[in-house]
Specification:
Oligomer: single chain
Largest sheet: 6 strands, mixed
Shape: globular
Number of helices: 10
Strand content: 15-25%
Structural class: alpha/beta
Distance between the termini: 5 Å
């Protein structure tokens, strides 16, 4: 995957060359939320192209997961606007945001551990299965057709991570890295336009992280979706992200390409400590 350079656009941001001429999938401006007297996020502005991979980095407590919670409407913002594919998300429920095309994974894995790998993916496919109550109750042909299509789709998604042979395994019995991958597959099952990954490499060894990098690029290229990720592994962030926003105390202190961010003195001192070795897609 060849990374595209960022181009300034009129609406407050940067966009990859690949997405120029297309409306942004995400357009956030002047976003803020207060908890009591604390400005947890303040004046957060970001534009994402439709097939862009963006990183959101910063120290623990900087507000990164709060931004994800704002995008998915777990929290309602105190100030600012979030446009998803041009539509204002204000007042929408988390379920409605998912229906609009946003899927996410979590810092702490949230699988249904007692269910099988395949059943976890089928849960993600629920909004794409359409049969009547009567068809389900009496197991009519329409029911079995939808079930067959859903299981085929689940198998296709699992094959992206080479997990199709694990479809009958109990999700909670999988190694940690495999559970992380399964959570991403389940999120993809909802057919998103924007995929939010909260520390996807947490708990992974270097080999698993390298494979994850390849798979994130593969997901973007296969499904033609935008991906925003929170991650502390700088080799992953610098290796696959086309744009990076650095958050500190709820405010963006730097935005730009990986080269610009890793050469920014403020970022180097506060977050990176030293220049990390760059990975590659």
């Amino acid at each position: 995957m060849e990374r595209k350079k960022l181009i300034p656009i009129p609406s407050r941001g940067l966009m990859t060359e690949r997405d120029i001429g297309k409306p942004p999938i995400l357009d956030i401006h002047s976003l803020g939320i207060d908890f009591g007297g604390l400005h947890a996020v303040e004046d957060f502005t970001l534009v994402m192209g439709r097939t862009e991979i963006t990183g959101l980095i910063g120290p623990n407590g900087a507000g990164k997961t709060t931004v994800f919670n704002l995008i998915t409407n777990v929290y309602q913002p105190t100030r600012g606007v979030i446009l998803l594919d041009g539509i204002d998300t204000k007042g929408k429920s988390t379920y409605q945001i998912n229906q609009m095309g946003v899927a996410r994974t979590f810092q702490n894995i949230r699988l249904f551990g007692e269910l099988s790998v395949e059943e976890n993916v089928l849960i993600g496919l629920h909004n794409q299965i359409h049969y009547s109550f009567a068809s389900s109750l009496f197991r009519l042909p329409g029911y079995w057709k939808q079930e067959k299509q859903a299981r085929e789709k689940a198998g296709e998604l699992l094959s992206i991570f080479g997990m199709q042979d694990l479809r009958a395994h109990q999700a909670g019995s999988l190694p940690y890295g495999a559970q992380r991958r399964l959570e991403i597959v389940r999120a993809l099952a909802t057919n998103p336009k924007l995929l939010l990954l909260d520390e996807p490499a947490a708990g992974m060894n270097p080999a698993e992280t390298a494979e994850l990098m390849e798979n994130i690029c593969k997901i973007r290229d296969t499904f033609q979706i935008a991906i925003m990720l929170i991650e502390h592994d700088m080799s992953l962030v610098m290796g696959i992200c086309e744009g990076i926003a650095v958050l500190n105390y709820g405010k963006i202190i730097a935005k730009g390409t990986p080269d610009e961010i890793k050469n920014n003195p403020v970022v180097i001192e506060a977050y990176l400590g030293k220049k990390e070795e760059e990975g590659a897609c």
